[in-house]
Amino acid sequence: MNWKIGGAQGSGVDSSARIFSRAVALAGLWVFGTREYYSNIKGLHSYFEVRVDSNPIQCKVDRTSLLASFDAETLIRHATTVEDGGGIVYNKGVTETSIEKVDTINKEVRQEIQQRLTDKGLKADISGILEESRRRGIHLYPIPYDDLVAQTGKRIGEQQLSKLTRIINVLAVSVSSALLGIDKRYIDDSIRNVFSGKQRIIDMNITGAQVAYEFVSENYHEQFPYKITPIQSKDRLFISGNEAVALGKLVGGCRMQTYYPITPASDESEFLEAHENFDVVDGKNSILVVQTEDEIAAITMAIGAALTGTRASASTSGPGFSLMVEGMGWSGINEVPVVITLYSRGGPSTGMPTRTEQGDLKFVLNASHGEFPRIVLCSGDIEECFYDTIRAFNYAEKYQLPVIHLVDKAMANTNVTVNPFDTKYISIERGKLVQEHKDQDELYRRFKITDDGISPRAFLGMSGFRFWNTGDEHDELGHINEEPENRVNMMNKRMRKLETADTDIPDREKVNFFPASKTADITIVSWGSSKGAILEAMKLLKNDSIEAEFLQVRIASPFPTELVKRQLSKAKLTVAVEQNYSGQMASLIAEKTGIIIDNKIVKYNGRPISLNELYAALKNTFEKPEENRRVVLTSGA
Amino acid sequence: MALKLSDVRTDLFNDWCPGCGDFGIEASLQMALTELGIDINRVVLFSGIGCHGKIVHWTNTFGIHTLHGRTLAFAQGAKLANPELEVVALGGDGDGYGIGAGHFVHAGRRNIDMTYIVHNNGVYGLTKGQASPTQRLGEQTKSLPQPNINNGINPIILALSAGYTFIARSYAFNTRHLKETIKKAIAHKGLALVDVLQPCPTYNDIETKAWYDGEDRRDASGRAVPRVYDVNMKGHDPLVSKEMDEDQVDKKIQHVFRLSKEWGDQIPIGIFYQEIGTPTFEDRISARIPSYLQNPPAKQIPPGTTKSTVELEKLSSELTVQANNV
């Protein structure tokens, strides 16, 4: 079942989708909810898709089972995505609205739609769109929202109906859930959670939901074909990528976070600030979140904090990371552990700020001038976002270098149900630190040359361990030194840390390998948020007797060359799936292993990969590899 | 045990040009640290890029030589993570008022309890003498192909409008004055700016040491009449306190504004402005995070390998969807 709700940005679409999703989750089902919106505050179109299943799910699908709407634009944009036999909930009052009038839709697009309707002999207004849907066997549910709002107002004694306009969202949600047969108590519980602490709004919405449920039971006796049946479940989290990273930071010991506002990263910092005081087993801990004047200050302030022994991070997206690269180089040469969480979005420049992309892989691997070791982690789903965040801090401190944790908008703004995070096996590993006591006469060598490249670290303020840092090449004490021999020793020492990390880090943290049950016909290679759609598509391929295996690369630096070689060298047909134009991971694999990936499936329209399009593309690729060397995916509104 | 000057110096070779104003700043800072008797293990100096940047290597405290223009951002990060540190940031005029001007303004908004010393010589020395943001319009120092086409900025007024709560100017070769000013800046609770006028013997052939000292103007007895004078000795009281009414504060600010514009024959040095009782950023954080000063970010996570002690279940309670037991 795939439910979709659309509406103008700022009209409450966000909270209504959360109410629906939580209600379904309370009924025991698994939820995968994606959010699409423009870079805009009020007025432009945004929508949520909520996929629901009795089994865990990992990606979005193209077809909508039930579309909930209250404006004309949602119908114009999304009615065609509703599957035959599905349903549309809409506002009775918009039936006469002409396509021409909805000027938030691009003019050329409007003209195309008008033409389409005229060609079918339909009126170029919402009634035409609805008739077009009806002909496909779609169930239509006109809702007199104004009447329902008025009834709600009467029941709660609110005369000013303008104060109630925002409940229209909840009416759309409630009509949908009544049609789907969801017990109203789940909706009520969910309303209480989403509007927690605002009793008046809770009462208003619960009454509205009651009015909507009554309306459906009085008017729509015929059964909507899709039903949501409650099933037994355990406690779960309903969580976004932003929130998973934030929780990972708190659990992983991050105690200072800096950021400059940027989509889609800021929600993480705001979550942290909202939870700045939190409980630990023996009392209270806190995280200091600093909103800086720019990303240059964000990264350099985080580095300053890290020098004191604080686990510190900065969170940003591509444009902000562009400003951070000089600072990151400084942390590289001074061996300061700092974590940068990078939520990748459509680039270059401002690009598509609210849309997803995996276009920054090669950038983060090479960003900043000169050469220095860095670790780059790529999470593939929301659970990995949590665990990888903790690893990022451990790696940063163990190997004393910057760690970039690469996630993307698709994960940041996707809300899913997951099993509660298990912290039993998680450790905080602070790496080599100086011993408390030392000979007073002995100078502390912050950058002492060692076999593994790692020098015992002291923090600012540690008595007897004064040290110097400089962005210049330096000697073991940290003083400027440009002598050729020293330069070579220091470069070797720093780069050696990457070899140490490569040796230390267990294989399972470098790649995930999902084998086929028999010899694989097709070997998929990917990274990041493409993971979910790949795993589900593999199951569909299996139904077609196509055996697929999948290598998910989780660490891009140090690159797991031997592991990747081992998995790919015996493959029959290799296919890279990536959300960028050029296939950046494929090219990285070629650089590191010499293996040329046979085929690529790429997507760069800013929308996450859907199961349907990926399954079709993989099938075509398997059947006719020569004709499908590069397939471009295009689904999404 | 009282500190000696030799305790706060390293024995590295100092490569500043002979006659550089940086020597006066270095000596004054080191004397100030010695006289204040602060535990040098608690002192962290941050510097930017430019000639001034090497000062941290000549000084035997923690010394962090950062990026061009970013000294304040690094320094604030360290101070906020561990408020027990005594943080002194040093910058140049190109470094701090040019490429780092954004940080200069926003540091003022925070008012973190630390000190910022700017080496102000009107030129970019290390890149061979281009005009810095403080060089005046129409001036043409030695290596400029054309006279300076930009207006010079006024650091005193910029700092005042940004919210610095201690604003002073000194002169590099008046080490007694500079040392005392730095001591007061460090003692001030809040963000303190010390803008230090400094000759560049190599590239600034206008504001030279001889010019500051007034070698070109002699009194009746033939003695040079220095251009710099101490405003506080001349009766300027910099203090602004919570008890003063709006009118009194306005008058003070107007006077500071006038003083800051004096240049040429009379150049004021001294403490221009000092606010007492304005909450620091640390105070504001403590109001939200009661444990901040006792248990700051730098002290929360123990060394070694440990288990996370965070109560994740409590923390994620609002995200939890209860089990369904149909």
Termini separation of chain A? 19 Å
Question: Could you list the spans of chain A in which at least 5 consecutive residues all have pLDDT below 50?
Answer: none
Order of helices and strands of chain B: HEHEHEHHEEEHEHEHEEHEHEHE
CATH superfamily of the largest domain in chain A: Pyruvate-ferredoxin oxidoreductase, PFOR, domain III
CA(first)-CA(last) distance of chain B? 74 Å
- Indicate the structural class of chain B: alpha/beta
Total of DSSP H or I helical runs spanning 4+ residues of chain B: 11
Task: Describe what this molecule looks like in 3D.
- The complex is a heterodimer of chains A (637) and B (326).
- Chain A has 637 residues and is an alpha/beta fold.
- Chain A has 21 helices and 26 strands.
- In chain A, strand 2 (30-36) and strand 3 form a beta hairpin.
- The mean pLDDT of chain A is 96.
- With 326 residues, chain B is an alpha/beta fold.
- Chain B is globular and about 100 Å long.
- Chains A and B meet through helix 1, strand 7, helix 9, strand 8 and strand 9 of A and strand 2, helix 3, helix 5, strand 12 and helix 11 of B.
Give the topology, please.
The complex is a heterodimer of chains A (637) and B (326).
Chain A: E1 2-8, H1 13-26, E2 30-36, E3 45-53, E4 64-68, H2 72-78, E5 82-91, H3 107-119, H4 126-135, E6 139-143, H5 145-156, H6 167-179, H7 184-194, H8 199-219, E7 236-240, H9 241-251, E8 254-259, H10 266-274, E9 277-280, E10 283-286, E11 288-291, H11 295-307, E12 311-317, H12 318-333, E13 338-346, E14 352-356, H13 361-366, E15 375-378, H14 382-399, E16 402-408, H15 409-412, E17 415-418, E18 427-429, E19 468-470, H16 484-504, H17 507-510, E20 511-514, E21 522-526, H18 531-543, E22 548-553, E23 555-557, H19 561-568, E24 574-578, H20 584-593, E25 599-603, H21 611-623, E26 630-633
Parallel strand pairs in A: 1-4, 4-5, 5-6, 8-11, 8-12, 12-13, 13-16, 15-16, 21-22, 21-24, 24-25, 25-26
Antiparallel strand pairs in A: 1-3, 2-3, 2-17, 7-17, 9-10, 13-14, 15-23, 20-22
Helix pairs in contact in A: 1-6, 1-7, 5-8, 6-8, 7-8, 9-10, 9-14, 11-12, 18-21
Chain B: H1 21-36, E1 43-47, H2 55-58, E2 62-65, H3 71-81, E3 86-92, H4 93-99, H5 101-110, E4 115-120, E5 123-124, E6 130-131, H6 155-162, E7 166-171, H7 175-187, E8 192-197, H8 209-213, E9 228-230, E10 239-240, H9 246-261, E11 267-275, H10 281-288, E12 305-307, H11 312-315, E13 320-321
Parallel strand pairs in B: 1-2, 1-3, 3-4, 4-8, 7-8, 9-11, 10-11
Antiparallel strand pairs in B: 5-6, 7-11
Helix pairs in contact in B: 1-7, 4-5, 5-6
